[in-house]
Design a protein that fits this description.
- There is one protein chain.
- By secondary structure, the chain is mostly helical.
- The protein has one domain (3-61).
- The protein has four helices and no strands.
- Helix 1 (12-20) packs antiparallel against helix 4 (47-61) and helix 2 packs parallel to helix 4.
- The N and C termini lie far apart (62 Å).
Amino acid sequence: MTSSNRQGWLNPQIESPRRAMTRSQLMDRILEMNPTATPKFLGGFTESSLAHYLEHLCVISEPHLPWVRRGIAPAIVRHEARG
């Protein structure tokens, strides 16, 4: 297990493609995932930085499970002043 995957939170499918991708492929994939980025802007970063950013985009694009409140405590608690 790699150091970045040590905690087990990264999907191996996310981590492995970035190692084999060229700079151009990294930039193309980033532009697909983040259409507000521009090639000129991305061109100022190292290949390693682009790979790291692509990994970040992949992680945040994974579906998340919604948080569900357990029946331990009510969602809203009201306190009245004693008077």
